[in-house]
Design a protein that fits this description.
Layout lengths: L5 H12 L35 E2 L23 E2 L9 H13 L4 H16 L4 H15 L3 H14 L4 H13 L3 H14 L4 H13 L3 H14 L8 H11 L4
Helix pairs in contact: 1-4, 2-3, 4-5, 5-6, 6-7, 6-8, 7-8, 8-9, 9-10
């Protein structure tokens, strides 16, 4: 009996088997192994529904006296609370991004970033997750070109996933293909402009390209989204010096 993961494995296997293997560009590994995101657990906000409670009925009205209204007091009102509507995944991401921008300690920021990463990866299908794990193994084996191909297959299945574009940009940076990495990050940020990790990666790529002002601008965006990423502004100051030289 085929397991539930068999169709996903078969699709990923077929996509990998159909790749053209006669020639594969060997990218130059400019940096250490960059591990693609692996936090794939989904998070959701628990619904807060209160049970409806009814108040006891009011006591019977006394017999009306002559000259008075015959209508007695109304029955007791039934109080109820409307259950809060469960937030969608994009709404949860937006709420956590707001909290990250107001984080007061590095520990709080790390916790919020972990939750954000899990939510961003929660929309990936089982087949896409399989390809992402394969890309991670290729990266660990210092095979960034094969990791890029795995993620290209994943993007063919879910082209609207910002985290996949960012992951492929990581692999392209490792392969030394800076221009392609920037293109992928542009796609990622177009879909998720409040992803501090994508902005941080963009700053790294621009720094590798020796574009100091662009690297500085991207890092300034990181600090808007996550002030605790560089609490003492040491990296910010270093990038400023690279971009404009030592202050006189």
């Amino acid at each position: 009996m085929q397991g539930p993961a068999f169709p996903g494995w078969l699709l990923a296997h077929d996509m990998r088997a159909t790749r053209f293997s006669g020639f594969r560009r060997s990218g130059f590994l400019r940096s250490g192994t960059l591990i693609a995101p692996c936090l794939l657990a989904s998070l959701s906000t628990a619904g807060l529904a209160a049970a409806q409670t009814a108040q006891p009925a009011a006591a019977p009205a006394e017999s009306p006296t002559p000259g008075t209204s015959s209508s007695g007091p109304s029955a007791g009102k039934v109080s109820s609370t409307t259950p809060r509507k469960k937030l969608t995944r994009p709404q949860q991401i937006a709420a956590l991004a707001d909290q990250l921008a107001q984080a007061k300690t590095p520990e709080d920021a790390q916790m919020l970033e972990a939750r954000l990463e899990a939510l961003r990866a929660a929309g990936l299908s089982p087949t896409t997750q399989l390809l992402l794990r394969r890309a991670q193994k290729d990266s660990q084996a210092e095979k960034p070109d094969e990791a890029v191909e795995d993620l290209s297959d994943a993007l063919a299945l879910q082209p609207d996933s910002a985290i996949l574009w960012r992951s492929r940009a990581q692999m392209r940076l490792a392969a030394g293909d800076f221009n392609a990495a920037i293109t992928d990050l542009g796609e990622a940020l177009q879909r998720d402009g409040r992803d501090a990790k994508s902005w941080g990666l963009l700053s790294t790529v621009e720094e590798q390209r020796k574009d100091g002002p662009a690297a500085l601008k991207a890092w300034q965006k990181v600090l808007e989204l996550n002030p605790m990423a560089d609490k003492n502004h040491k990296h910010l100051d270093a990038l400023h010096i690279k971009a404009f030289g030592q202050p006189t």
